[in-house]
Amino acid sequence: MEINYKLRAIDDYIHFYNYERLQGKLKGLSPMKIRTKAVSQLLNCLLDVVQFTSVG
Predict the structure, then answer these.
(1) Which residues, 6+ apart, have CB-to-CB distance to 23 below 8 Å?
(2) What does the pLDDT read at residue 26?
(3) pTM of the model
(4) Are the beta carbons of 18 and 30 closer than 8 angstroms?
(5) How many CB atoms lie under 10 A from the CB of residue 32?
(6) Rg of the chain over all Cα atoms, to the nearest angstrom
(7) Judging by beta carbons within 10 Å of its beta carbon (0-12, 13-18, 19+), is residue 12 exposed, middle or buried?
(8) Distant-in-sequence, close-in-space partners of 39: CB < 8 Å, separation ≥ 6
(9) What is the pLDDT along the chain (56 residues), one digit of tens a residue?
(10) Residues ≥6 apart with Cβ < 8 Å to 22
């Protein structure tokens, strides 16, 4: 039981660190929000390239 409690506490902290912790150097966003924003921008760029090459 003690090990499960410790594992759960570690898991909770990792979740907090990645999803809820706000960073000043990340403009007040959490690391996961920054990653999500970056992936979204990358996908938009890739879609633009695909659309451009299919038109030309």
Answers:
(1) 29, 30, 31
(2) 84
(3) 0.61
(4) yes
(5) 14
(6) 19
(7) exposed
(8) none
(9) 688 999 999 999 999 999 999 888 888 889 999 999 999 999 999 998 888 887 65
(10) 28, 29, 30
